[in-house]
Amino acid sequence: MESNKNNGTTSINFVQILIAILIAVVPTAIVAVSTVIYQLGQQVARLESDMEDLKLQVKSFTEKANKTPGDNLRPIAKQSRLVITTSLTKENDPKDSVDIVSMSKGEIIFYTTWYGLKPNKNYQVIWSLQDGTGSPVGSSAYDFKPKNATHYTWYYYRFNPKLDKPGNWKITANLDGVESIDKTFFVSQN
Predict the structure, then answer these.
(1) What is the Cα gyration radius of the chain?
(2) DSSP H or E run through 3
């Protein structure tokens, strides 16, 4: 019977030890788990705060990107285009599209099609032309108020063979300081 008593005592000692271990370990584990949960909560709060900051930055950037001083910019739905032509039709369309021009033609026309405009809004296109040496040879500014979302502008340049130099010329059309189109073309003496 003593052995049963020892086994019972051993069982009681084992249970007591197990309870003592659980009492010692469980609070530590609870504290550790609580600490991890708290830290995760802090990280989530920081991420949420960072996300709100990012949303505000995106909103601010979008507002700046969509505004000029006092007005909204147009969304560019389609790439505007620039055609170099030797003349216009009766309907004011380019008669041809050239990349090589002879000064003997007398003049050249730079024709742009602007897309995505806001009807009845004031716009300004500024043209600048550089000759084969990179020197400015011509410029023009034109204000317009389109009736539709698409509008056409053009700029004439009359060659001066005594002053103009042959070579690779460059034309730039700038709309409201926002959208710029440029094209390089070759000008020959004859």
Answers:
(1) 38
(2) helix 2-65
Q: What per-residue confidence (pLDDT) applies to 23? A: 80
Parallel/antiparallel/unpaired status of strands 100-102 and 179-188: parallel
Domain span including residue 164: 74-188
Instruction: State how many domains the chain has.
Output: 2
d(CA 16, CA 28): 19
- Region of 70 please: left (phi>0), alpha (psi -120 to 50) or beta: left
pLDDT at 48 over 90: no
The whole-number pLDDT of residue 1 equals 44
Q: How far is CA 166 from CA 100, 106, 109, 128, 186, in A?
A: 11, 13, 17, 17, 7
Closest CA to 155 of 110, 114, 99, 185: 110
- Percent pLDDT > 90 in the chain is 46
CA distance 116 to 149: 5
Verify that 147 and 184 share a domain, yes or no: yes
* Rounded distance between C-alpha atoms, residue 77 and residue 156, angstroms: 27
